[in-house]
Amino acid sequence: MTMNSLGNPFDGDQSLIHSKTCECPTCQPGTGASLLMPATEKVQEAKASDAPTDSEAMLDRAIESAVVRSVFGHNDFDRRSFMKMMGAGSAAALLGSVFPMDKAKAAVKESLGKLEKTKLNVGFVPITCATPIIMAHPMGFYERYGLDVTVTKTAGWAVARDKSLAGEYDASHMLTPMPLAMTMGAGSTPEPYIMPAVENINGQAIVLHVDHKDKRDPKDWKGFKFGVPFEYSMHNFLLRYYLAENGVDPDKDVQIRVVPPPEMVANLRAGNLDGYLSPDPFNQRAVWEKVGFIHILTKDIWEGHPCCAFACSQKFATENPNTYGALLRAIIDATQYSQSTENRKEIAEAIAPKNYLNQPVPVIQQVLTGYYADGLGEVQNVPDRIDFDPFPWHSMGVWILTQMKRWGYIEGDVDYKAIAEQVYLAGETGKLMQEMGYSAPSETYKTHTIMGKTFDPAKPEEYARSFAIGRV
Amino acid sequence: MASLNVRAAVVSITFLILVLGMWEMSAQAPEAETAMTEYERLMGGADQESRVPPPSKVIALAWEELSDPFYDAGANDKGIGIQLAYSIYRVLTGYLAAMAIALPIGFLIGMSPLMYKALNPYIQVLRPISPLAWMPLALFIIQDSDASAIFVIFICSIWPMLLNTAFGVANVREDWINVARTHELGPLRTALTVILPAAAPTILTGMRISIGIAWLVIVAAEMLVGGTGIGYYVWNEWNNLDLASVIFSILMIGVVGMVLDLILGRAQRLVEYKE
C-alpha cells in the first residue's frame, strides 16, 4: 500500500508518493499514518524547512495535498512539472480561487478535530456485558483513535455511579436504566447523563439453586429469595416482569434483594438465595461451580433486550467533543467487532485474565459462544445467548421508564419521550455508525415484544397501567 | 526458660502440622474420571467440585505470588507487594493525619475539664460509627476515591488515640503537677516535661489500638473503592471465587497487621517507666 506524505503539494521538487519499496518510517509496518497522532519520524522525514510541525498544520497540509492530488488525477509527475512551471505561491492562489480551500479545512477539522484529552479513565464492572469496553483495551481499539484509556475495575454499580459523578471516570460501563435514573435524580443527585451506546443485548439468565430442579414453574416460587445486581437494572425489571406475568407479585410473594454479582454464587451455595437474575459470567459460573442451573435465558423473555450501557456525563461530552467522539467511535467499533460470532473465542481469551474479568476461560467462552452446559445435564447451543449492538433505541428507554413507573421507582407525570431522547442519543449514534460504514436503523422507535405482549412506545402511560400486577 | 521456649515451639509446630495435615487430607480433589463427556467438560469435570483448597495449593500459590511480588500487568493486576505497599501507604497517611489531630486535642481535653465536658458528647456520638458508613459521604464530598479511603482510615483511627491521650493526661498524678507548680514551670513546660512523659505509655496504648483498627478498616475500604491495595486484591480474587488466593491474602493481611503492632509495641516499651 502506498502512503501519502505530508510534503508540500505546491513544491515541484518533492514527491508525494511513497512506492511499495519506500523505506521511510511512515511506510514501515506498525508506525501507521494517523493524521492526528503523527509519528515524530514522519515530521523529520519531510523536508525540514517546510514540514508542518503541529497537528493542526498537518491536517491543513493533508487537505491541501488531497485537493492538489485530485486536481492532477493523482499523477505526481504532472503535478511536479506544473508546480515547477507556475511556482508554489501562484499555484496555491490559482487553486484557492476555484476551490474553497479554507472551508474544506474547517469542515474536516470539525469532524476530526484535535483531541482535548488523550488520557482517559473508563470504569467497568467485571461482567461479560462489559466485553466491548474491556476488549477495546487489550485489542487496541482505543489506541486506534489516539486514546490512552485506562479501564478500571469497579466494585459495583453504586461505586461506578459515584466515581462517575465525582469525575474520576470520564466515561463508564453502566446499566441501561442508570443514566435515565441519574438524569432524573432517582437514587442519586440529578446530573444530566447521556448514553450514546448500548453495550450488550440479551446475555442474562435466571439461575436457580440445584435443589430447585423440580420447581421449573414460577408459580412454585412463592417465598423465594432472589438476587438482582442493582435496583435500576434490566435485571430487576425483567425479573419483576417475568414473575408478574406468571402471577407472582415481586413485592409481596417473593423477596428481591440487591446483591453484587460475585456474591450471588456464594449466597446461592450458602442457601441465602434461591435464585437470581444476574449478569454473566455468574450464571455460567453457578453451573460451573455445580450449585445452580440456568432456568431461562433473558433472551427468551425479551429477545434483543438492552442490558448494559456505555455512558458519560453530558458535561464531559460538551467540554471534550472530539475526545468524546473518538471514544465513542472506539466503542462502536469494539461493539461491532464483538457482534461477530467468529471473534468471540478470541475475545473470551483476551478478557479472561486477572486484569479484566479474572474468570476461567472455559466459563467466559461458554457465555460468549452460547455453547454451554445448562446445569440440568444438557449441552445447549444458543449463539445469540449474548449479543452486542450499540444502537440505543429510544423505545427501549421508554420501556425502561414505563417499568420504573410501574413499580413505583418514579412517580407523577413522566415525559417518557423527552427523557429517553435526552439521555439515549439514538439519532447521533445512528449517524455516526453510518459514517463509520456500519448499518444503522433510520428510526429510533419501534415496537418490542416481551413475553408475547406488544409494547407500543407511542402509548407509554397506557402500557405502564396495563398490567394486572403493578404499583400504579 | 530456654527449655520452655523450645517445648512451646515444638507444641506449636506439632499443632500446625496436625491442622494442616487434617486440612490437606479432607480437601483432596475427587478422582478424575478418565473420559469426560462434552457436558462434563463444560462443567469443568471433577476439578470443579466445590471445596476448600488444600494447604498444599495455598502454599504453592503463596510461593508463586511471593517470588514475584512487584509485577505490574496493567491497571487491575499488580503483584502482592505493590498491593500491600498501597494499603500501607493509605493506612500510614490516614493514621499520621489522625495522630496530628488526636494528640493535641487529646492533650487539650485532658488538661481542661471544661473542654472535656464540652467535646465529650461529640466524641461519644462519632466514635461508634462504622468506618464504612462514612464511605458514601466521603466519596460524595471529597470526590476522590483514594482520598476517601484515607479519610475513612483517619476518622476511625482518631478516637482511641484521642481518648487515651485525654485519659492519660487527665490521670497524671496530682503530686507531680504540684511539684512542677512549685518549681514555677510554665504550662507549656509542664506539659512537655512532666505530663507528656507521664502520660506517654497510655498515649502509646491508644496509638497501638488505632493502628490495629486502621489496618482492619483498610481491607473493607479498598474492597469498596477498589483499584489497588490488599482489599482490592481480596475482592478481585473473590470475584473469581478463588479461595486459595483469598486464604493467601488473609494470611498476608495478618502478617502485616502483626508487624505494625510489633513496631508500636516496641515503641511502647521505649516510653515505659517504673514509679
Features:
A: 472 residues, alpha/beta, 5-stranded mixed sheet, B: 275 residues, signal (chain A), TAT_signal_bac_arc (chain A), TAT_signal (chain A), membrane (chain A)
User: What is the overall shape of chain A?
Assistant: elongated
DSSP helical segment count of chain A: 20
Quick one: which chains have the greatest interface?
Answer: A-B, 41 and 31 residues
Q: Span between N and C termini of chain B?
A: 28 Å
Percent of residues in helices of chain B: over 70%
What structural class do helix, strand and pairing data of chain A support? alpha/beta
Count every helix of chain B, treating DSSP H or I runs of 4 or more residues as helices.
11
Q: What percent of residues of chain A adopt helix (DSSP H or I)? A: 40-55%
The biggest beta sheet of chain A, please? 5 strands, mixed
Mean pLDDT figure of chain A: 79
Number of strands of chain B: 0
Percent range for β-strand residues of chain A: 5-15%
Total beta strands of chain A: 16
- Catalogue the unreliable spans of chain B: none
Question: Could you explain the architecture of this structure?
Answer:
The complex is a heterodimer of chains A (472) and B (275). Chain A is of the alpha/beta class and 472 residues long. Chain A is 40% helix and 15% strand. Chain A has helices spanning 40-45, 55-71, 76-86, 88-98, 101-111, 131-135, 141-144, 157-165, 177-184, 234-245, 261-269, 282-288, 314-319, 321-339, 344-351, 361-369, 394-406, 416-423, 426-435, 460-465; strands at 119-124, 148-153, 171-175, 193-198, 201-202, 204-209, 225-228, 255-258, 275-279, 292-297, 308-313, 371-373, 379-381, 386-387, 448-450, 453-455. In chain A, helix 2 (55-71) packs across helix 5, helix 11 (261-269) packs parallel to helix 12 (282-288) and helix 15 runs antiparallel to helix 16. Chain B contains eleven helices and no strands. The longest helix of chain B has 39 residues, at 187-225. Chains A and B meet through strand 2, helix 8, helix 11, helix 12 and strand 12 of A and helix 2, helix 6, helix 9 and helix 10 of B.
